[in-house]
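The records we work with from here on pair a chain with its fold. Taken together, the tokens spell out the fold as the letters spell out the chain. To see the layout at work, look at the sequence and tokens printed below.
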Amino acid sequence: MSRLGVIGYGRRMQHMLKTIDRFKSGATVAAVLDPRETDLRAAFPEALTGVAFYGDVDRMLDEQQLNGVLIGTRCTLHTPYAVKVLERNLPLFLEKPVATSWDQLAELQAASERTTSQVVVSFPLRVSPLCETARQIIDSGAIGTVEHVQAVNNVPFYAADYYHGWMRDEAQTGGLWLQKATHDIDYLNYLIGQPPLGVVAMESKTVFRGDMPAGLKCVDCWRQVECPESPYNLFRQGVTHEVEPNDWSCSFAVDTGNHDSASAIIRYESGIHAVYTQNFYTRRGAVARGATLVGYLGTVAFDWYKDELTVHYHHSARVERHRFESTGVGHHGGDEALVAEFLNAVAGKESTRAPLAAGILSAQMCLMARDSCQTNAFQEFRPLMARQVVA
């Protein structure tokens, strides 16, 4: 039986632990580091019976004989806790983004070079059945070499969290390049299979902005009936299934953070470029998440929300259509694949499909995109430690 430690017992980790339970591997939670012990024990009395709670990570890792650790804290704490786990060479499941600043990324890179830990980064898209099928088709040479890439993430209503909830605070998340694009840039790196040479990016904030007072909550707002983003109207529109708790913060206030659309162009080693764009006010049937990868011989295009992948052969009338049955499964089947990877790591087996190096590379490219937006300049890719020396 494997003993697991959990650092940050939030919604994401609760979901992943339920997924682990479905594998019937015998892995159980032995220790939790989270300041909300009383509330968590009341909410999960069975799951947390006999589980030790800690307020200090070193004490937990020293006292408990753990076989693996899962980190799901707020984003700014991912790196500090990951470094502690890596120092003890324990298998690690690490939520994204793996870091939120250049200093954190340099610290994590240095720790990764000293550890023997098997790390699984929470990148479910790259290990989903749809993405794996795209990779197999590309590797087969069916479309020739990839020459151009167009990728999009038109986010559905859950994007409201980035403007109504705590994730509007970019100091907590690192911003939406690291919070959202890190997934997409990672799967693009995985499919393209080349080192990046540089990034140029632009972001806009034209919708979720306004002159409403800072700190305003929906419950206190005098415009609830007319505001299209109020819990009342979102329910009436059928966007939500019930009136959400209206302790939300106003998404049209002067203190609303985060861009609401952004785009990046990434240059890769062979000279090709990928175009990626994300948008946070699309809804209903307008949502999309996927990519079109074009070669001379053919094109592969897919969308996770449609569970479809299509291959067009340029020099014949042949078209292949692949359908997937992952609707309703965690991150389109990717969460189950991540759990399998992590349990393999806990069992001492190699686990490499979502490695720490991929998390570090994606975070670096997201930081480059963020810097590009702030400086209006192309950001050249440099090996991480060399970049820190120059900076």
About this structure: The longest strand covers residues 146-154. The CA atoms of residues 6 and 32 lie 5 Å apart. The chain is about 35% helix and 20% strand. The radius of gyration is 22 Å.
